[in-house]
């Protein structure tokens, strides 16, 4: 269902072919969205026609697109890039005093979390896992804070571009997001077991044979994100809840249906910020940028 090694390598070459200085660029420079569409969808098949119609609809709101590297982290990458690009303050959950104690607290309750897979490394001791994830969470807060404090849009964008050229830091941030998703899943699972109200997607998340509880979710899904698989649709809901962001996605292959613009979650909190992504297939995500003036007004 997701991208094999050869396809990922082709994607990297596409992103890097413009110049050697962009060798590690995870989010390509922006190009006109209809120019991109014409290059990608030249044929007259029903699929190509639908994609062009979808891009035309997106172009009513956004002038440009930025291509995201497709290495099974792309949903996390696109969402985090958009969130940081428009960040003006540190989210309340990042300001919590016990935020960085999350790994230690969870590991003290759930021994199975020591089997968390960090960046393709296995066999760590529990303390090492806790310390490493804590470092990732500290990095996430540090980067979010520093970028949100930048006032000028050009400078903010440059800071985001710089961060997403630093592979070591970038992938550490994705591990932080995955751990926050696990924490959110544990909270939702426990809330449901204790008779509290939970969002509908939580039932769907734990209704799968492969994730009937948080431990299975970690083993069969979260541990594979970025390695052998990306985010499934129900996990897009989980990511949105973990970040307390609404993720709005233009699903181009669903053009002319009610699912063309999908919100994760579909009943978001009013005060949650919104980030916008584009997908052609619910596997790979790109970023629309430069909102049209008419839309802004």
TrEMBL record:
A GO cellular component annotation in the UniProt record: cytoplasm
Residues the UniProt record annotates as site (Linear diubiquitin binding): 259
Any Gene Ontology biological process: regulation of tumor necrosis factor-mediated signaling pathway
Catalytic-site annotation from UniProt: 71, 74, 284
Family matches, as InterPro entries: FAM105, Otulin
Localisation: Cytoplasm
Region of interest (Linear diubiquitin binding), ranges: 40-41, 69-71, 281-283
Keyword Cytoplasm: yes
GO molecular function, one term: cysteine-type deubiquitinase activity
Record's protein name: OTU deubiquitinase with linear linkage specificity
Similarity comment: Belongs to the peptidase C65 family. Otulin subfamily.
Keywords annotated in UniProt: Cytoplasm
Domain of life: Eukaryota
């Amino acid at each position: 269902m997701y991208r094999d090694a050869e396809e990922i390598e082709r994607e990297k070459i596409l992103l890097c072919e413009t110049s050697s200085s962009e060798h590690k660029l995870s989010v390509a420079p922006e190009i006109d969205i209809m120019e991109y569409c014409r290059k990608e969808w030249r044929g007259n098949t029903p699929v190509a026609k639908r994609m062009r119609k979808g891009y035309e609809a997106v172009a009513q709101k956004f002038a440009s697109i930025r291509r995201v590297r497709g290495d099974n982290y792309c949903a996390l990458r696109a969402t985090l890039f958009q969130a940081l690009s428009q960040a003006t303050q540190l989210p309340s959950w990042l300001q919590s005093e016990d935020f960085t104690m999350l790994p230690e607290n969870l590991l003290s309750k759930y021994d199975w979390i020591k089997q968390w897979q960090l960046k393709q490394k296995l066999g760590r001791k529990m303390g090492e896992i806790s310390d490493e994830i804590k470092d990732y969470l500290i990095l996430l807060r540090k980067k979010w804070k520093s970028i949100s404090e930048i006032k000028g849009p050009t400078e903010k964008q440059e800071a985001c571009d710089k961060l997403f050229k630093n592979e070591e830091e970038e992938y550490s941030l994705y591990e932080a997001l995955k751990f926050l998703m696990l924490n959110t899943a544990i909270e939702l699972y426990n809330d449901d077991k204790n008779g509290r109200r939970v969002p509908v997607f939580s039932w769907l998340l734990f209704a799968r044979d492969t994730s009937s509880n948080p431990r299975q979710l970690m083993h069969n899904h979260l541990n594979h994100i970025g390695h052998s698989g990306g985010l499934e649709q129900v996990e897009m809901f989980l990511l949105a809840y973990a970040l307390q962001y609404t993720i709005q996605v233009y699903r181009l292959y669903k053009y002319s249906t009610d699912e063309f613009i999908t919100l994760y979650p579909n009943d978001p909190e009013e005060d949650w910020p919104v980030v916008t992504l584009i997908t052609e297939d619910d596997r790979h995500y790109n970023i629309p940028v430069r909102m049209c003036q008419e839309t802004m007004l």
